Amino acid sequence: xxxxxxxxxxxxxxxxxxxxxxxxxxxxxxxxxxxxxxxxxxxxxxxxxxxxxxxxxxxxxxxxxxxxxxxxxxxxxxxxxxxxxxxxxxxxxxxxxxxxxxxxxxxxxxxxxxxxxxxxxxxxxxxxxxxxxxxxxxxxxxxxxxxxxxxxxxxxxxxxxxxxxxxxxxxxxxxxxxxxxxxxxxxxxxxxxxxxxxxxxxxxxxxxxxxxxxxxxxxxxxxxxxxxxxxxxxxxxxxxxxxxxxxxxxxxxxxxxxxxxxxxxxxxxxxxxxxxxxxxxxxxxxxxxxxxxxxxxxxxxxxxxxxxxxxxxxxxxxxxxxxxxxxxxxxxxxx
Length: 335
Fold this sequence. Notes:
By secondary structure, this protein is an alpha+beta fold. The protein has eight helices and eleven strands. Pfam families: OGFOD2-like (PF25238).
């Protein structure tokens, strides 16, 4: 249970914390509120307008800090962003195993090396501009923000699988052009990059070369309102991180992908391809946490989508197999 501090209490900087996020008192500091008041709140302060952390170099997604700030004790809310970030980072790191901390730091260094050397081709992509990114019906549905408005632009070929138009063609062209430019830089610089996953040998992680902030906005302002309505039972209303990437398929690339379960609560699939043939996308049944890696069975419900021209939004633990678009690239945004 969290308790509010005394009126006027103000911390001059972050205090050390224990493994459970309890702030320890420092005898060299001015008298502060009782130690119990410095715990994270159990219930977020919905009336508090948190800071934006998009422009800061962080160990975790900026949206995590924006969400976590609502749980800070009242006496910390007025602190400078840098101090709040330090305090929240210490808490987050306490819950990471040592090996995971090392992995996070190595990946941060890897990403910083790319961003410091790669020169973007289309800088307008790196900020979210809704009017030039999304088609008008999609923007209207998000603005109305009701289940009825979303269903007006959607079809639901199978329970928990939704398809609809989302991006303007010009945005898809710019994104493909940017990815091609990044791949060109990788080849010329002989830079070894991390591929999106262990299943695909071709593709790139969009967050790694600077598109993390844009994808944060995509998730927070345009995906979360939809997932809050349709996927609330699996965390759709509290999405706070993502793994955004593009994968490439072709005769000289990966040709297909077998049945698998995405490691996400909600997955966004977008076809960005130019000219292609094929494109069958299958959804076969769902899995509970205990049987997430179980094989598919003949009695599982099979949903077969012949052409994906817009967005496919699917819930957690859908079993998917894809015969992808030859010569095409597909954007995934996973949470």
